[in-house]
Design goal:
heterodimer; A: alpha/beta; 3-methyladenine DNA Glycosylase II, Chain A, domain 3; 3 domains; 3-stranded parallel sheet; about 10% strand; elongated; B: Heat Shock Protein 90
Chain lengths: ~425, ~140
C-alpha cells in the first residue's frame, strides 16, 4: 500500500481551478496548480470538506463497488447507524436491513452494536482513572488523523480503543465463521459508509495493523439501489438487534451521552473540532472528562457520502431511537478492542528537520509575507498569503504567482521600457542634431 | 542568520476574547520549527496564563519571545498595579481578580503557579504602582 493512500481524490476533468476547496481545507492540503486543484497527500486527513463544498463535483471519494461482493463466498453489510436516517420511505430498521439482504448481501451486522460495545469499554476506562483528562474519542478517523499531524500533545488524550466499525467487523467475521462453517477469509465484510475517512482508514489506519473490513461502499451508492428495492420487499425479516444508545451515535452528541462521563462536550464540524482541540492544548478544558469530536457537521449523519441532509437525518435518527428499546447487546469478550499499535506524531507541517534551518526559513517566510497584499484571495493557488510565503520558501511556488506582485513587476517593466524608449528617442534626436550641424 | 529568533507582541488590555491569540501564534510557530511537542505545550500553557494575567490585572502589555534551538525565553512586561505579595500570589487558589472576572471563568488563582509549573525557570520583577515583568525560560533540549 502506498504510504499516503487517500479516498478523497480529484477528477481533473471536472475541476475548474476555483478557490472553494482551497480555502476551506482545514489542514491547508490543497493547492491550485496549472488551473487544477492538487491534494498534498501527507496533509490530507480525508475529512471530506472539499467534497462537500466543490460546486463542480470534482472532488470524489473512492469507495468500492458492489462487484467486490462476488469475491467472497459470504458477504456481510456492516451498517453504519447513519444509514437508518437516509430514507423518506421508511424509518423501520428491519425494513432497511431486509432491503440490504434483497440487494445481494448474505447477512447484515449493525455497527450500532459495536458502538454499544465501545461505549461499555470506554465507561470502564473512564472509571479506572487511567485515562488522561479530557479523554478524546477515537471514533472519527478524520479527527484522529488531524490530531496525528497537528496536535501531537493530544495523542495521549485519545481513548486507545478501536472504532465501532472495526469492532463490529471483527465480531461479524467471528459470528459468520461459526454460522457458515466458512474460513474467515472467505467472508467479505462491507462497511456502508457515510464518509471517505473510513475508506481511507481500512486501507491504512494509524492504529490497526490490518482492518477487518474488506470493502467500503458509500451510503449514496447503496441508496440509489435501495430506492428500487423497497417496493419489492416480500417479507420483512427480523434483523434489528441494536439498542437505541448505539443508534444515536449517528448524530452528534449521541456517543458522548451514552458514556458515564458527567462533564462532556460533543463537537462537530472539522473547523469547530480544531478550535476545541486548541483549547484543550492550552489547558483550558481540564475539567472536562470526555470529548466527542466528529469531523462532519451534525456528526456522521452529515457525512459527505450521505444522501439526506443532516438535519432531517438527525430528526429521523431521534425518532427511530424513541421507537426502539435500549437493548443491551454488548459483546466484545473475545475480541481485542484496543489499538494494535500506538499512534505516532506525523510532523508534516514542519519547515525543516533542523531547527536552525527551520528558523532561517521562518524568517524568510515572515519577510516575504510582509511584502504580500494579505488579501488571502487564493488566486496564486495557495489558500492564503501566509501559505504562499511558506510555499515559496519550501520551493513549491514563486513570488509572481501572486497576481498583485505580478502586476507590480509588469508595471515596473513597462516603466523601464518606456524609460529605455525615452532614452533612445533622446539619443537619436541628439544624433540628428549633430548630423545637421 | 542569527541563531535567535525574536518575536514581539502587544497584548491589548480590554478584550478577554482575544486573550490567548499570542500564545496560539507562538504555538504554531514552534510547531512549524519542529520543537518537541512537550516543549510547545509548556510554552503554550505558561504563555496563555501570562496573557490572561496581563488582561485581568494589568490592562495589557508586551510579550517578547526569544527562540533558539536550546531554549525559549518569554519576557512579559506590563505597566499594571504590580504584585504586593509575591509569596501569596504564588499560592494555588490565591487570586486578587474581582468578581466580574471570576464570573467569566478566570481568576482561579492558578496563573503564576501554572507558569512556574510549566517553565524551567521563572523570575518576577515587580513594583507596586509601576508594573510587573515576568521572565520564563523553557529548555528545549532533552
Amino acid at each position: 500500500m502506498e504510504k499516503y493512500w487517500h479516498s478523497v481524490t480529484l477528477d481533473k476533468d471536472l475541476c475548474k481551478g476555483c478557490t472553494h476547496c482551497l480555502k476551506l481545507c482545514p489542514t491547508q492540503a490543497i493547492r491550485v496548480q496549472g488551473g487544477k486543484a492538487k491534494i498534498l497527500k501527507e496533509r490530507c486527513i480525508d475529512c471530506g470538506e472539499c467534497i462537500r463544498v466543490c460546486p463542480y463535483h470534482a472532488k470524489k471519494a473512492v469507495t468500492d463497488s458492489f462487484e467486490m461482493l462476488k469475491r467472497f463466498k459470504h458477504s456481510i453489510a456492516l451498517v453504519a447507524p447513519a444509514f437508518y436516517g437516509q430514507f423518506s420511505r421508511t424509518e423501520d430498521i428491519d425494513t432497511i436491513l431486509t432491503a440490504l439482504i434483497d440487494l445481494g448481501f448474505d447477512d447484515v451486522f449493525e455497527v450500532a452494536k459495536g458502538a454499544q460495545a465501545v461505549t461499555k469499554k470506554t465507561n470502564e476506562l473512564l472509571a479506572s482513572g487511567e485515562l488522561l483528562k479530557p479523554s478524546i474519542s477515537s471514533a472519527c478517523p478524520a479527527v484522529v488523523r488531524l490530531i496525528a499531524i497537528k496536535f501531537p500533545n493530544l495523542i495521549s488524550n485519545i481513548v486507545p480503543l478501536k472504532s465501532p466499525m472495526e469492532v463490529s467487523a471483527a465480531q461479524a467475521r467471528e459470528e459468520a465463521a461459526i454460522k457458515t462453517g466458512l474460513s474467515p477469509d472467505e467472508i467479505g465484510i462491507f462497511f456502508i459508509s457515510p464518509c471517505a475517512a473510513k475508506a481511507t482508514f481500512i486501507k491504512g489506519g494509524y492504529t490497526v495493523n490490518k482492518s477487518n473490513v474488506d470493502g467500503v461502499i458509500s451510503i449514496k451508492d447503496v441508496c440509489i439501489k435501495m430506492s428500487r428495492q423497497f417496493q419489492k420487499i416480500a417479507d420483512v425479516k427480523n434483523l434489528h438487534e441494536a439498542g437505541s444508545s448505539g443508534v444515536m451515535w449517528a448524530a452528534s452528541g449521541g456517543e458522548a451521552e451514552a458514556t458515564t462521563a458527567k462533564k462532556f462536550i460533543a463537537v462537530d464540524g472539522i473547523h469547530n473540532v480544531i478550535k476545541v482541540l486548541e483549547e484543550i492544548e492550552d489547558g483550558k478544558l481540564g475539567d472536562i472528562e470526555y470529548v466527542e469530536a466528529l469531523a462532519c457537521p451534525g456528526g456522521c449523519v452529515g457525512g459527505p457520502l450521505t444522501t439526506e441532509n443532516s438535519f432531517s437525518a438527525r430528526a429521523k435518527i431521534q425518532r427511530i431511537c424513541k421507537s426502539i428499546d435500549d437493548t443491551d447487546v454488548t459483546f466484545g469478550e473475545n475480541i481485542n478492542m484496543f489499538w494494535d499499535q500506538a499512534m505516532v506524531y506525523r510532523p508534516v507541517m514542519n519547515l525543516d528537520p533542523d531547527i536552525n534551518e527551520a528558523m532561517r526559513k521562518l524568517n524568510l517566510i515572515d519577510e516575504l509575507y510582509e511584502q504580500l497584499p494579505k488579501l488571502d484571495c487564493g488566486s496564486c493557488g495557495s489558500p492564503g498569503c501566509r501559505t504562499l510565503a511558506e510555499d515559496i520558501v519550501r520551493g513549491y511556488a514563486k513570488e509572481t504567482d501572486c497576481i498583485f506582485k505580478l502586476r507590480e513587476k509588469v508595471s515596473a517593466m513597462a516603466r523601464d521600457m518606456l524609460e529605455l524608449e525615452g532614452q533612445n528617442t533622446l539619443l537619436s534626436s541628439k544624433k540628428s542634431e549633430e548630423e545637421n550641424k | 542568520m542569527a541563531e535567535v529568533m525574536k518575536l514581539h507582541y502587544t497584548v491589548s488590555g480590554d478584550d478577554f476574547t482575544r486573550a490567548g491569540e499570542t500564545s496560539s501564534k507562538v504555538k504554531k510557530t514552534l510547531n512549524q520549527l519542529g520543537f518537541r511537542p512537550e516543549v510547545v505545550r509548556k510554552v503554550a500553557i505558561s504563555m496563555y496564563e501570562a496573557e490572561i494575567n496581563m488582561v485581568i490585572h494589568a490592562n495589557g502589555g508586551t510579550i517578547d519571545v526569544d527562540i533558539s534551538p536550546e531554549e525559549i525565553i518569554i519576557v512579559m512586561q506590563d505597566t499594571g498595579p504590580g504584585i504586593p505579595d509575591i509569596e501569596k500570589a504564588m499560592q494555588e487558589g490565591y487570586s486578587t481578580a474581582d468578581h466580574n472576572v471570576r464570573e467569566l471563568g478566570f481568576g482561579a488563582g492558578m496563573g503564576l503557579p501554572n507558569m512556574k509549573r510549566y517553565s524551567d525557570d521563572m523570575q518576577i520583577d515587580t513594583e507596586v504602582g509601576k508594573g510587573t515583568c515576568v521572565k520564563l525560560v523553557i529548555k528545549a533540549k532533552e
